[in-house]
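idk why but the lab printer keeps eating my pages so im just putting this in chat instead. protein + fe (ii) ion:
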Amino acid sequence: MENLDVLFLISKLLNKNRSVLMHGRRVARLACAIAREIKYRAAGIEDVCLAAITHDIGKLHLPKEIINKPGALDEEESAVIREHTRIGHILLHIIKSSPLTAEVALQHHERLDGSGYPFGLRASQINPLAKIISVADVVDTMISPQVYKPAMAVEAALSEIRQNSGSLYDPEVVSAALIIVKRRGKGIYP
Ligand SMILES: [Fe+2]
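predcted complex ->
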């Protein structure tokens, strides 16, 4: 677990942007439940929680006009957004957060079939915790309202991860997410 100075810096940074903070907190709740469900043991639950909370921390250094732009982004703007993974990795490294949190920030948009970014890593090359957090991230992003789109229904979001299980998302993680949501009924967050 991180020392208090690192945690203080992280909370100070995240408090600058409420939507990144709240998204990270929701992702953490879902990611921790998934980690428990699949008996993820490579790191403690506090580390899973922290990696989830900080996965998008690189967004704090992107131009606000792109982050808050309603509607579709052009190619150049999308490329800027994709940089949040590398920026988060560097930032977490600089403030001496754990290598795991930095790796998750870097890899949480990688996809099993190599279609993700920033490196196009394939299944076996992606950190298992990044696979957990990517599913929690995608679910929360779909079911929460964004500046560029309204919230999607929970059922539609679940059908998207089910359809792409094994191609984009880790099948074990997807099954766990589906079990958790089913068990919880209407409120998907533990
Ligand atoms: Fe992200």
